[in-house]
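Feature request, filed as a ticket because there's no other form

It would be nice if the structure record came with a short human-readable summary line next to the tokens. Right now we just get the raw output. Example of a typical job, pasted below so the devs can see what we mean:
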Amino acid sequence: MSMRPVGLSKIPEQTVVVARAAFPKGSLAIRVRDRLAEVFGDEPFAAAFGVRGAPGLSPGVLSLVTVLQFAEDLTDR
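Raw output as currently delivered:
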């Protein structure tokens, strides 16, 4: 398994507009993404992956999902 560090993808502008309209005060997920995006980058994990093979899932994104599941008291099912 390999990994190409890309970090979190850019949010499309229309999605930002709709999210801000739907949640004028923000939501937990929006605040976490806005304030902690650099914490969930892939670069710190790059050494744990090989350079050949199929690309694996982003460990940064998986970490962000895990944090949000815990914060919202959701199961992983």
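Something like this underneath would help us a lot:
DSSP finds three helices and no strands in the chain.
Residues 40 and 61 are 7 Å apart (CA to CA).
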